[in-house]
Amino acid sequence: MAKVSETYAGAFVTGAELQPLGQRRQAVIHQAVQEIVGQENAQPKIVLDLVSRQGQPWPRRVVLNKTNALALANGLGDDTDAWPGKTIEIWGEMVMFRGKAIPGIKLAAATASVPVGVQMAGTVPHSAQPAGRSTSAGSGAATPEQTPDHAAPLSGGPMIDDELPW
Fold first, then answer.
1. What are the structural domains of the chain?
2. Residue 135 class from Cβ within 10 Å (0-12 exposed, 13-18 middle, 19+ buried)?
3. Who's near 43: CB < 8 A, 6+ residues apart?
């Protein structure tokens, strides 16, 4: 049976999907690339491919705004080529956007390193890849066989490594 939420899901994570707001999740950066994002006034942005700490790929990517990019650069360094394999925290939080409070995405470098169980191969973890996007990464990613089905929404309890926000 088709689900509207899955049929029309975009390529990028939204703050509204990171429920409950304020619940921090840890993820590992598989790849950080610069891409032109947007339709009107399209601009280059840093876009992250993430995997869980156990190696399960996130089904959608994360676009960094300037605030989140600077927060990660502060904790991981300015060169995004060094980010793959680094653990970050990601959560939803109410932010102001065009004069309205909406759920936004917040990111920070995590103090923990990647557990030994995470193994990254040479393919991008997403089955649908945007045109013009490279399929190779410096340190690789989880294999397509590990690509998750959309998981149930979070229960609000403590998160386990592979409990994704979908």
1. 13-126 (2.40.50)
2. exposed
3. 36, 37
Give the separation between CA 157 and CA 166, rounded to whole angstroms. 15
Report the alpha-carbon distance of residue 114 to residue 91 in Å, rounded.
Answer: 18
- Over residues 126-141, the pLDDT tens digits come to 433 333 333 333 333 3
- How far is the C-alpha of 150 from the C-alpha of 135, rounded, in Å? 22
DSSP string, 60-90: SBEE--HHHHHHHHHHH-S-GGG-TT-EEEE
Q: Round to whole Å and give the CA distance between 82 and 104.
A: 25
47: buried, middle or exposed (CB in 10 Å: 19+, 13-18, 0-12)? buried
Q: What is the 3-state secondary structure (H, E, C) of 94-152?
A: EEEECCEEEEEEEEEECCCCCCCCCCCECCCCCCCCCCCCCCCCCCCECCHHHCCCCCC
Residue 25 has pLDDT above 60, yes or no: yes
Query: Is the torsion defined by CA of 91, 92, 96, 98 positive or negative?
Result: positive
Measure Cα distances from 67 to 14, 74, 114 in Å: 16, 11, 24
